[in-house]
Design goal:
By secondary structure, this protein is an alpha+beta fold. It is about 25% helix and about 20% strand. β7 and β8 form a beta hairpin. The structure holds 5,6-dihydrouridine-5'-monophosphate and zinc ion.
């Protein structure tokens, strides 16, 4: 059933009136204003980015055989290439500051060690996940898994955040297909919020939050974008970004290392299916920030944690008009106009 169903049906009328929805994974609310989708727009019209067509760019610091900005030479790689970020936001060495970090309750500071890596998905400069072969995306999944294993083997690393900034609109510095990994001494805010909500749900209901959620979404079907035997991509009930997506495994798995071969293939396939629909939606190389959320690696058991991926795309109504998180959203709470149900319907149709 779509969000455009009859305004007089009491069962669905609330879908067309301002309401708020709860995000059980972050433990916060989002405001939905579906009646506002017809408002006129005279704001910014950005220029659409044109996808690069060349397979090798001599000026690209990620292409095989080229010199990076930091002076290092890339090998002539023909698969995946991983290197330590030359401009890492985190450093692995202890600060030697000891007690010098501020202990004041209003001025708290503490050490944060970490490692930052860059993962080139493919040697071909012109590709994106949507245009890569599924078997090549599977190699990316394998590389992420190896990196997760390698980084988590350090006992002081507690979270491995794997992500991709895609497109200039999302701040990606280069169109070459690549992502990043930041591994940190503390669990960052987003996975920490998800850890607490998933732990609380398991304790209360004796079941996994996202196992329950994926079953519910598959039964209702109205927010599903696409699915295969192992993975489902959907616009979550509580989505903030217009075309936000949550990628969930059907079978319970906590971490990248828990995915079996069929799930690795299923993940690669769903990434291709979803990014292809995104590109088709506004006939553009769709920008987004995508990130994997595997279980923390803090040497604790994590029966509550369900492996998933988030896609946060900025676009609202065309290749050039983006959503801004300003005003009430910065000061009050996030808000959206188009309902998650109609966003999912449009992405389903963008096959
Ligand atoms: P983004 O496109 O998501 O910004 O990722 C590119 C990363 O690559 C970025 O973090 C790093 C930047 O620091 N980088 C290098 O490590 N070496 C270079 O020569 C240029 C960019
Ligand atoms: Zn390149």
């Amino acid at each position: 059933m779509s969000a455009s169903s009859s305004t007089t049906d009491p069962a669905t009328h609330w879908l067309q009136t301002p309401h708020r929805r709860y995000n059980p994974l972050r433990g916060e609310w989002v405001l939905v204003s579906p009646h506002r989708t017809q408002r006129p727009w005279q704001g910014e019209v950005a220029t659409a980015s044109t996808a690069p067509k060349i397979s090798y760019d001599p000026a690209c610091y990620l292409c095989p055989g080229n010199t990076r900005a930091g002076g290092h030479l890339n090998p002539k790689y023909d698969g995946i290439f991983v290197f330590d970020n030359d401009y890492a936001a985190l450093l692995p060495d202890a600060a030697q500051a000891g007690d010098a970090f501020s202990q004041h309750p209003l001025l708290r500071a503490e050490q944060e060690r970490g490692l930052c890596r860059v993962v080139c998905f493919h040697p071909d400069h012109s590709l994106t996940l949507a245009h890569m072969e599924t078997r090549d995306i599977e190699r990316v999944v394998e590389a992420w898994t190896e990196q997760y294993k390698d980084l988590s083997a350090r006992d002081w690393i507690r979270y491995v955040q794997i992500f991709e900034n895609r497109g200039a609109m999302m701040g990606a510095s280069n169109p070459h297909p690549h992502g990043q990994i930041w591994a940190t001494e503390h669990i960052p805010n987003e996975p920490l919020a998800e850890l607490r909500t998933q732990q609380a749900y398991l304790q209360t209901h004796h079941r996994c939050l996202l196992c329950d959620y994926v079953k519910l979404e598959l039964a209702q079907a109205e927010r599903i974008i696409c699915a295969n035997e192992e993975f489902v991509a959907l616009v979550p009930f509580w989505a903030v970004w217009p075309f936000e997506a949550l990628v969930l495994s059907r079978r319970h798995a906590g971490s990248l290392t828990d995915l079996d071969r069929a799930q690795q293939t299923g993940l690669a396939e769903i990434l291709k299916q979803l990014t292809t629909r995104y590109d088709n939606l506004f006939a553009t190389s769709f920008p987004y920030t995508m990130g994997l959320h595997p279980a923390p690696v803090d040497n604790q058991p994590h029966p509550e944690w369900h492996f998933h991926a988030h896609f946060y795309p900025p676009l609202l109504r065309s290749a050039t008009v983006r959503k801004f998180m300003v005003g009430f959203e910065m000061l009050g709470m996030p808000q959206r106009d188009i309902t998650p149900e109609s966003a999912a319907e449009r992405l389903r149709a963008a096959e």
